[in-house]
Amino acid sequence: MFNFSVLEQLIGFSQDAFQHLSPAMTQLIRSTSVELQKLKQSYQNNDAKAIEYFMHKLRGSYATLGATTLPELSRPMEQALHQSGQLPGAEAFAEYLECVEQTSAALELWLTQFEHHSDTTTPDVLQYIQYLENSDMQAYSLFQQQRSGWIAYLGAEDFVLMEQEIMTLNFVAATERLKRIMQHKEAGQ
């Protein structure tokens, strides 16, 4: 549905970039319901040009941020509208509307999750390694709660790799990564 690494690359794990893009994403989420109402009205009026316009606008906005399913679903319908003025069937249109709503909800969830996890203090790395070594599921939630602190400690590149390991519950790889980084930091001091 969404490739959130696109968003993370846009933001670059920078608080400034997040503060710059966050209002635009919030506005997109808020305006989506209005756009959907206009789209539904255009569909009822058999206004192919307006339908194509709103579908293109929604697809482009969400695809730029990393949406994957919506562009795949939207593109063939937009082409049919553009080339022959052919409206999507009722079932396909309903599926499209549901996809837009789910995509918007996914972005909103990601956005609120990022905002709330702003504990920038450096995590207790040794204690965290113990959670990982014991395959304690608390390691998963702690990583999310201390997201900003981990970004600061690990740096953007290692954070992305470790986040993937945590999300896939590959605690062994995450433990090895943390131990290497910790040794490197201690050697550098």
TrEMBL record:
Keywords: Phosphoprotein, Two-component regulatory system
Alphabetical list of InterPro entries matching this protein: HPT_dom_sf (IPR036641), Sig_transdc_His_kin_Hpt_dom (IPR008207)
GO terms of biological process kind: phosphorelay signal transduction system
A Pfam family this chain is assigned to: Hpt
Domain HPt: 17-110
GO molecular function terms attached to this record: protein kinase activity
PROSITE patterns attached to this UniProt entry: HPT
Record PTM Phosphohistidine, positions in chain: H56
Protein name: Hpt domain-containing protein
Organism whose genome encodes this protein: Rheinheimera tangshanensis
